[in-house]
Predict the structure.
Amino acid sequence: MTIHKGIRTGGRSARVQQSIHTAVKSLLDSHDRADLTVPMVAQSAGVTPSTIYRRWGDLPALLADVALERFEPDEKLPDTGSFRGDVLAYSEQYLDEMSSELGRAMLRDVVATGDNCCTARCAEMITTRLAVLSERAQARGENHPPIDFLIDGIFAPMVYRILFSASNPDNAYIHRLIDQCLPVPE
């Protein structure tokens, strides 16, 4: 089921969406995710289950939407003065957030929907941030590889390890990926 991207940002629709998101976050704090149901979320949010089904289609899509909202960073991207340093700082920040218990759960929620729209939104968030770092590098006159190269070389392996490895990747792993993609100039 596709999450509706055209929901108005103000008014009743936004208030309903916010109350549902708040209910999900609150319920996830006090219940196992396997115990959550659409009727439980609806009751907590003060809406009917049909409101949730109409907007999100099912519980996995709602959980993915809440997860994507949580992916939005609260602070600005690091500016270290170099493209390599900026990508390294952002990669470490991403690893820290996504390898946490909450981060892993959010990634799983996005993947579990089976909806390309959700996974595309997740990928777009990384791409957008790397584009900002790329623009900074261009303004400084730095050369850098294409964004897709960085995603394939740094973020894809990192997400794979977060989701499917028995142990979390660490900063040393990130440094090795960065060194492969952005070698230190001689």
Notes: Residues 71-181 form a domain with the Tetracycline Repressor; domain 2 fold (CATH 1.10.357.10). Confidence is low (pLDDT under 50) at residues 1-8.
